[in-house]
């Protein structure tokens, strides 16, 4: 099937009505990765795979709208029908500091920093620190001959270009639309589209929307800056690269 990304949630900062926060399922090259685990995403994940199918978790930063459901995942893996040990969790040090030490040895914490690399099955990971406080790591995932980039949270001081050339799909935050340019640590849709165009991204998928924004307006503004069609990350939709 090749590399695919399934949206588990796309609300930024807090979950909108009927929505979940940031979370995505990346599958390909014989591996299944849960990328960010914001509130509500664990429930949606189970529409697509069993919790036991998750090979690794990648968490971009310590704001709870990106990691909170890893607590429930721990409970399921520790006390479920088949207890698991040593599940890799790639995350900045700040995330590890927010979680309970009781999660060892269910999780094998792998602290990553700017420029770090890793692998899960046949998927290759490379991390890049973004323009967002606290330490926040975007990630590039390569597998099955395709390349996927996830911006995590970022302001305009970082670019998708930092993830390298040849991104077949970029999942980029678009917290705001309209005249919110310059909001610290986040992008407007127009900024996301312009950056994706400069980075040579082939396909742009917007996510991390402030719950009250008009997503269709965000898509229009991003498309004008990108110079082509732009998609809105839709919960439970699977996007094939």
Description:
With 241 residues, the protein is of the alpha/beta class. The protein has a single domain, classed as Metallo-beta-lactamase, Chain A (4-Layer Sandwich). It is built from 5 helices and 14 strands. Helix 4 packs parallel to helix 5. The radius of gyration is 16 Å and the shape is globular.
Sequence-ordered SSE layout with sheet pairings:
Elements: E1 4-9, E2 23-28, E3 31-37, H1 41-45, E4 56-58, H2 70-79, E5 87-91, H3 93-98, E6 107-111, E7 117-120, E8 123-129, E9 137-143, E10 146-150, E11 169-173, H4 189-198, E12 204-207, H5 215-226, E13 231-232, E14 238-240
Parallel strand pairs: 3-4, 4-5, 5-6, 10-11, 11-12, 12-13
Antiparallel strand pairs: 1-2, 1-14, 2-3, 7-8, 8-9, 9-10
Helix pairs in contact: 4-5
Order of helices and strands: EEEHEHEHEEEEEEHEHEE
CATH superfamily heading:
Ribonuclease Z/Hydroxyacylglutathione hydrolase-like
Percent of residues in beta strands = 25-35%
How many alpha or pi helices? Answer: 5
**Helix proportion range:** 10-25%
What oligomeric state best describes the polypeptide chains here?
A: single chain
**Global outline:** globular
**Which CATH top level class fits?**
Alpha Beta
Q: Rounded to an integer, what's the Rg over CA atoms?
A: 16 Å
Average residue pLDDT: 95
Structural class: alpha/beta
The CATH topology annotation reads as: Metallo-beta-lactamase, Chain A
Distance from N terminus to C terminus (CA atoms, Å) equals 9 Å
Task: Profile the largest sheet.
Answer: 7 strands, mixed
**How many domains, in number, for the residues?**
1
């Amino acid at each position: 099937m090749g590399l695919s990304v399934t949206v588990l949630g796309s609300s930024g900062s807090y979950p909108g009505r009927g929505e979940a926060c940031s979370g995505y399922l990346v599958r390909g090259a014989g591996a299944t990765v849960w990328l960010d685990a914001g509130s509500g995403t664990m429930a949606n994940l189970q529409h697509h795979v069993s919790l036991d199918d998750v090979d690794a978790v990648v968490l971009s930063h310590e704001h709870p709208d990106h990691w909170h459901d890893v607590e429930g995942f721990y409970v399921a893996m520790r006390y479920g029908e088949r207890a698991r040990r040593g599940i890799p969790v790639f995350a900045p040090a700040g995330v590890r500091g927010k979680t309970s030490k009781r999660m060892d040895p269910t999780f094998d914490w792998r602290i990553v920093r700017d420029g770090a690399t890793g692998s899960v099955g046949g998927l290759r990971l490379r991390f890049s620190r973004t323009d967002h406080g606290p330490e926040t790591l975007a990630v590039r995932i390569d597998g099955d001959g395709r390349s996927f980039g996830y911006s995590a949270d970022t302001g305009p001081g970082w670019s998708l270009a930092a993830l390298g050339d040849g991104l077949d799909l970029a999942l980029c935050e678009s917290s705001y639309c309209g005249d919110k340019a310059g909001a610290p640590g986040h992008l407007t849709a127009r900024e996301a589209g312009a950056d994706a165009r400069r980075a040579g991204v082939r396909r742009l998928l917007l996510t991390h929307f402030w719950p009250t924004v008009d997503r269709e307006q965000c898509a229009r503004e991003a498309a004008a800056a990108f110079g082509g069609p732009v998609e809105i990350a839709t919960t439970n939709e699977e996007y094939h690269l």
